[in-house]
Give the backbone structure.
Amino acid sequence: RDPPSSPGRFANATLVRLADFLSAGYKKGVRPVKDWRTSTIVAIDLMVYSILNVDEKNQVLTTYVWYRQSWTDEFLVWNPEDFDEVKQVSLPTANVWVPDILINEFVDVGKSPDIPYVYVTHEGLVQNYKPIQVVTACTLNIYNFPFDVQKCSLTFQSWLHTIDDINITLMRSPEKLRDDKSVFMNQGEWELLHILSNYKIFSVDNDDYYAEMKFHVVIRRRPLFYTVNLLLPSVFLMVMDIVGFFLPPDSGERVSFKITLLLGYSVFLIIVSDTLPATAIGTPLIGVYFVVCMALLVISLTETVLIVRLVHKQDLQPPVPHWVKYLVLERAPITPLSHSAAQCSLHHTCEIGQRLSQQDREGGMLGLRLAPSRDNTPPVMDNILQEVTAIRQFLEKRDRCREIAKEWLQVGYVLDVLLFRVYLVAVIAYSITLGTLWSVWQVA
């Protein structure tokens, strides 16, 4: 038996008859207007589905959007009563005229699914809806990282046709477009704030004018991950550096403690260096924050080394200059509590000095009492007197060294307290400034 012929198979197919009717004599390469003076108005709409990637180094934004455009095709019109009340039909995109509207910021072809059909209503309204993976160039400002807000533009315009041929308008009102987050996947690193729209007519040579619709996609980074993994460890290390000032300056533990903190912070910076965004035109403020924290740790270590050098006891240590005594011990605005701490640490040295002074006085009196006339002094007594005099001179010299060491220890304690206050004020002022900036950026 022979297979039935094609006309027989589609004899009662309304959609086939409608497709044949619409395709009869249709020219998809010609703009679908009966009067060539009529401009084809293309209504477009944009909904952001996901933020796939923000490449700060290459200044590229990758998004997945739902793009919709519609226009009136005056040659795709029919009477529904003639086609079993069919009011809309899907047709292959390749068989109808499609406006050449592109995104100016495109830098790469994304992996977008191919939607081969468009919807056409009986009034000639063509609806072309499709998802697009958009890879666009965007000027990314990372100075406020990780509290940064980025604003990237997607500019839609006809690449060839002037505004006399193709004009662009919004499918929805700007207010509805701005606050629409119905399809956005809100689980990633970036949060969609809003989508702004701006219509503009421009000319390249002041002769032909073109229409463009620019969408500003405003996104904000969620800073919790970076706050926990970058800021808090740095803050903890700086707090430990401040706590290290409460160690006695005349002990060697403070220097080793500060060096350990400095090495730990260096390792921390090496670990987080890959997390910070990098561009050729700027550095984020958090990078400057890390460098300043490292500099503060170095300053703290330098201060500790200087204080330890001052309070270190040496036999040939020179006396404290008078101007140092005046500026540090007399004029320095130090609290009585700090004086007490310094005096308590020097209590043992003071007792030694008192005992030495007592011995020196006794030795001096003994020397004076045992100093008879040279004429009647036996050789044995003369040797004894010389030995006693030598002992007295030795004790006096040791007492002077102890007094000098005591004065340097007092100077070291007072300077340590003063430098600690200056360091603490600098750290607090720096922290408040950065915290205020980041809080303002987060709220804004």
